[in-house]
Amino acid sequence: MAPVMVLWLALCLTGTWAVEKSNFKTCDQSAFCKRQRALIPGESPYRALLETMELTNTRLTLQLINDKNKVRLLLELYRLQGNMTRVKINELKPLKPRFEVPDVLVKEPTTEPMSLLSQDENGVVLSLGVESQRVILSARPFRLDIMEGREVLMSLNSRGLLAFEHLRIRKDTFSYKVTSTVASVWDNVKRVFSSALGSFCLSFKLLVTPFIPLLPKQTAKEDGKDEEGMWEETFKTFVDSKPNGPTAISLDFSLPGVEHVYGIPEHADTARLKTTENGDPYRLHNMDVYKYELYSPMALYGSVPLIVAHNTERTTGIFWLNAAETWVDISSNTTVFGKMLDYVQGSNEKPQTDVRWISESGIIDAFILLGPTPKDLFAQYASLTGTQSFPPIFSLGYHQCRWNYNDQEDVQAVDAGFDQHDIPYDYIWLDIEHTDGKRYFSWDPHKFSSPKEMLQGLKDKKRKLVAIVDPHVKIESSFKLHDEIQSRDLYVKNKDGGNYEGWCWPGSTGYPDFANPEMRELWAQMFAYDKYEGSMDNLHIWNDMNEPSVFNGPEITMIKDAKHGEWEHRDVHNLYGFYVQMATAEGLIQRSGGVERPFVLARSFFAGSQRYGAVWTGDNIAEWEHLKISLPMCLSLSLTGILNCSLSHAHMDTPRREPWLHGLDNTNLIRDIVRQRYTFLPFWYQQFYHSHKTGILLIWGVSVAECCGYIIQRKLQRKDLLVHPVTEEGVTSVTAYLPGKDEVWYDIHTFKKHNGGQNLYIPVTISSIPVFQRGGSIIPKKLRVRRSSTCMEHDPYTLYVALGNQNTAEGEIYIDDGYTFNYEKKEFIHRKISMANNIISSINLAHDAHFTTQSWIERVVIIGATKPSKVTLKAAGGQESKLDFEFDASVSLLTIRKPGVNAGEDWTITLK
Predict the structure, then answer these.
(1) 10-12 and 618-619: which strand pairing?
(2) CB–CB of 237/678 below 8 Å?
(3) Annotation marks residue 67 as catalytic
(4) CA atoms of 57 and 60, how far apart (whole Å)
(5) What is the rounded (10 degree) CA torsion for 673, 676, 680, 682?
(6) Pair type for strands 809-815 and 758-763
(7) Is 619 a catalytic residue?
(8) Which residue ranges does the chain devote to CATH 3.20.20.80?
(9) Is the domain 687-911 a CATH 2.60.40.1180 member?
(10) Are 615 and 645 a contacting pair, CB within 8 Å?
(11) What residues does CATH 2.60.40.1180 cover in the chain?
């Protein structure tokens, strides 16, 4: 396994079977998508009623009217702290509240003042307070343009595709007929008898007044003929009753000057999103898609409705806060079959990408992230949905997983095999077969009769175990969890009010209503040691099937008219997995008394899921193409804040895959690469710390880092490590792009120096993966690899100093206890390591922090160096000493041995 920056969790299955696509809808089979997509651009019926505008210190509100049906909407516009703008659109007076997504935002965003610059009958201009940024609101048709100087950064409804299907009473229902009849009679009475029968009219009015509230309140002119699928929809044998009728929303965004857009995971596609004009839109609808199709806009297990737009001048984003089924159309006026046209129309023409969001229900709640740099944008998004949870360091080690290890003796044998073959690992995983009859929070009484003994054996070696806990509950009266959920009425309901039942691994299954905070608290309590019998502190959790997966449901998930309290499942669907992981993470924190950081992996996710743990890319196939697609999939997740992505898992019907079962040569290769991964753990851990604190990406595609369109599969790690994975069978060479014309890069294996800004031809073998360290960086490593990461806690560091063109370099060392929340109490070491003018120094970056370490600096390796005549060390106490060194002139490599200073103290090394 290459020294990649995240835990690989891409499920590998043998065989060449493909997904059964007929189980999943296309846009034409999704009534609301088909209906909205049929709208014609440029014919917007919406007009802004400027006379209704109200501007306070924190927001602007005004009404929009649909001139076709006279339904009014309420527009809210906010300027947010951090160079963001928020746009909300809802019905002015809905028949009932519409769903607004809770819990995803870490807090209500801080607003900043807007000021009115000008106003006339055509619209208004507002200042956004940042340089020359302003919003132009045009009245007829309604349109928003966000500008900076003379440049349009983004336009809303410029194509006129805003649509908002208002709540209404069905025309053919009894209530509608009664109220319509009453209204009609009353109108006739008023018209014919108003003068002659005034007293009768008054009596009649008193009679019918109680029925007036039942009339459609805001429809002066009702919409036209109902279309198929508006009030009921059938897919295969499944019927969606749609009791609230059509509720879809849509809005288009135009991005002038932009030809590259990324994001909206999860899709098995390139990181750069393609135009969808000649096919289906990208779909966001969390589903169990076994052995998914490649290069497809089909929905997969998770959804993050964030698009990142990028060009050489600016990076912007659109965060569409809606948890219902969503389709995203992307079009461009500069592409044909994904390639740029020559600008034959003239040099002033700019590319433009248009993005249209279509959701089945809810409201329009869009956050416009204005960058301008990638770093700014990622910080903006993190301020809304949070940063990646800071994982315990051992979760970044090697994991061994399959469906299923047979019993606890099998676990012990696999554990011993790693020791026998000198391969480190941190976790072994158990799938569903470890439970007692698929009753989660239990153990098979025959195969895993002594789980604490098994866990203690792993703990003695400083290793851990992950057990699967799925969010469906076996319906069985003797099962305590089922009884408690049922007694407290915390199951999802069907449309008739009974408990919703589906079919999953246990057979007949109930689905806890995780949208209910009371259910989440009950779930969290289940992880207490006295309730989850046999569990210990080295047991961590895997939430699978949390889309939710329903084997006998439409599209293998829950029927949309199921109920979560007052809300339909269609409103909250993409939040279900988010809530499951939230409750599980909270449970592991609670069981430790709030002390320990949890490790929770989930298959389904939404925006904000990064706060609760890791995700994986789902059920793929063990083929080269699926390996290749996992890279842009993880990069897309990274762009949306989910940095801890991707396992080496195996189906129960596949051959065993322990590293020593593939012949001696392969065992040696696997051992070497896994051990190499462990040497980099200090580096990966400190990168996760930075990402957790700031929201900056853990991994970058070169195209993002370099503001150009280079192949996204090439990965750039904080501009310090560049990895070019080999993803094609039998290749003997690859061509890697080394970015930065003023940069230099060093092969980490040969220490050979290469200039940046070039495509580099690299011969490769089965045992080589091209990895380069950027000149100007310093990377800490631990070279004494032991059986697990925890065993390496106090081991010494080796610093790899790669000199840049100015013979300077910078890096950091971050150290804490590796697994608790004590870093939040300033219990850590954070030091800057730098080299300039032939002096290497370690300086404290956190003077208010306190932590001690037994680790020391064992050696310093300087790449691109010249041979010194003498090397001296000045330690914290002021004493100086001479250090031994070796110099390899063939690769300009200087190795300074045994400085012996504590990694948490000040020191300097001088080269003379």
Answers:
(1) parallel
(2) no
(3) no
(4) 8
(5) 120
(6) unpaired
(7) yes
(8) 395-615
(9) yes
(10) yes
(11) 687-911
User: Helix, strand, coil proportions of the chain in percent (round to 5)?
Assistant: 20, 30, 50
Q: State the helix-helix crossing angle for 576-591 and 517-525, rounded to 10 degrees.
A: 40
744-787, pLDDT tens digit by residue? Answer: 999 999 999 999 999 999 999 998 889 999 999 999 999 999 99
Two structure tokens written together for 300: 């997969």
Read off φ and ψ for residue 106, nearest 5 degrees: -70, -25
* Residue for token pair 């990064």: 610
- Residue 388 reports pLDDT greater than 80: yes
Who contacts 587 (Cβ-Cβ below 8 Å, separation ≥6)? 523, 524, 525, 526, 527, 528, 541
DSSP 461-475: TT-EEEEE--S-EE-
Q: Tokens 């898609």 belong to which residue?
A: 289
Lookup: tokens for 74: 């309420």
CB-neighbour burial class of residue 112 (10 A; exposed 0-12, middle 13-18, buried 19+): middle
Nearest Cα neighbor of 201 from 212, 218, 188 is 188
CB 45 within 8 A of CB 66: yes
For 638, phi and psi rounded to 5 degrees?
Answer: -60, -40
Q: Give CA torsion, residues 608, 614, 620, 621, to 10 deg.
A: 160
Of 815, 828, 843, which Cα lies nearest the Cα of 907?
843
Report, in angstroms and rounded to the nearest whole number, the Rg of the chain calculated over CA atoms: 30
The dihedral formed by the CA atoms of 239, 240, 246 and 251, expressed in degrees to the nearest 10: -110
Enumerate residues 6+ apart whose C-beta is below 8 A from 609: 302, 304, 577, 578, 581, 602, 615, 642
Closest CA to 745 of 758, 754, 737, 736: 754
Paired with 249 in beta bridges are: 164, 359
**Helices marked H in 328-401 — which ranges?**
374-385
HSE-CB at 199 with a 13 A cutoff on CA atoms is 0
Q: What is the DSSP string of 572-633?
A: HGGGHHHHHHHHHHHHHHHHTTT-BPP-EEESS--TTGGGG-EE--EE--SSHHHHHHHHHH
Q: pLDDT value at position 15?
A: 43
Token duo for residue 650: 């195996």
Q: Write down the pLDDT at residue 282.
A: 98
CB-side neighbour CA atoms (13 Å) of 194 = 6
Name the pTM for this structure. Answer: 0.92
Q: Is the peptide bond before 404 cis (omega within 30 degrees of 0)?
A: yes
Crossing angle for the helix pair 408-420 and 451-460, nearest 10 degrees?
A: 10
Q: Which of 519-533, 680-694, 711-725, 845-859 is least confident?
A: 711-725
Per CATH, is 395-615 categorized as 3.20.20.80? yes
Q: Which of 252, 354, 415, 544 is catalytic?
A: 544
Active-site hit among 329, 513, 619, 816: 619
Is pLDDT at 186 greater than 80 in this prediction? no
